Amino acid sequence: MPTKFDQMTEPESKPGNHGWASPGRAQMAVLVAAIAFGSYLCYRMALPFLPALAWAMALAILFAPLHRWLESKLQRANLAAGVSVLLVALIVVVPGTFMGQRLLQESARGATIIKTKVDSGEWRRALEAQPRLAPAVLWVERQIDLPGTIQTLTSWLTNKAGMLLQGSVVQLIGFCLTFYLFFYFLRDRNSALRSLRFLSPLSATEMDHLFGRVEDTVVATVYGTLAVAAVQGLLGGLMFWGLGLPAPLLWGVVMGLLAVVPVLGAFIVWVPAALFLLLEGSWGKALLLTIWGAVVVGGIDNLLLPILVGNRLKQHTLLAFLSVVGGLMVFGTSGLILGPVVLTVTTVLLGIWREQAMAGSHESPGRT
What we know:
The chain has 368 residues and is mainly α. 83% of the residues lie in helices and 0% in strands. Helix 4 runs antiparallel to helix 5 (77-119), helix 11 packs antiparallel against helix 16 (335-363) and helix 13 (267-279) packs antiparallel against helix 14 (283-313). It is elongated. The two termini are 45 Å apart.
């Protein structure tokens, strides 16, 4: 005679209640679909704030030691986070933003001066004063519409400067949002990490490994970018010194600072300098500065950055290069951080999946 327990468990033994058609599997499928759809909607909502999120995360990782020290001294999480945000804003962002705007405006003004010299024909008289350069003058006039080129360059720089000024309000909102998120990333970092550990299917050791690799990625990317910018500024300053241009130390520092910004670059300094040398008749110096700036100063970025970042990320140089360049193309300026982070997270997860798969195959007695 069947017992009460057998009667309760009998429906579960029927073939029709197993497989994807069972209520439990159907509920799980609906739950997974709802989570996937909700995650997609969350991504769409976060997409406009992705740059602010990326830079806030990077700042929180870079200045975490400073914040921990302040937190130990002040003993108040809100106050320590506020002081950290204020210090970072005063030290890093405000001077950099002001200098970028000023330099772009000065570049536009310098381009206007060059256009005036070209329109007046001063460049032609300076070159014709040297008989050996007469063929060069004729070749330039036949091959290149110099006044039109200068006009295009002047218009581009002027438009960029105007767009930068017009977008100052948007930039201010973006900066405020970045530091708003930065504040909470510092203050609530421990609770956020605990939440990620709770939601993640990975073990505590695997999550520690993942967090460590992400931190290494951000630190390597930022410090690698700063190191490359310093090299570019040094090379540019040395060329200014070698050519006898004024204030080589100052302009070397300026080129280094501009090299940090993906949208700008050291060319904003050396291109106008090369044009001035050309208009003064120093065509040899102008050519040397152009080659040095385009090939050496500009090319060292693509050569050195993947090496510095790749070594710290434990990634091949080509993959590091593709993650940086591809990240900039996909995410914009925040791709400098997000590109390497996405590559690192994907690589770590694939490694964890491979280790778990190998461990599962070794534990299964029927597998070879």
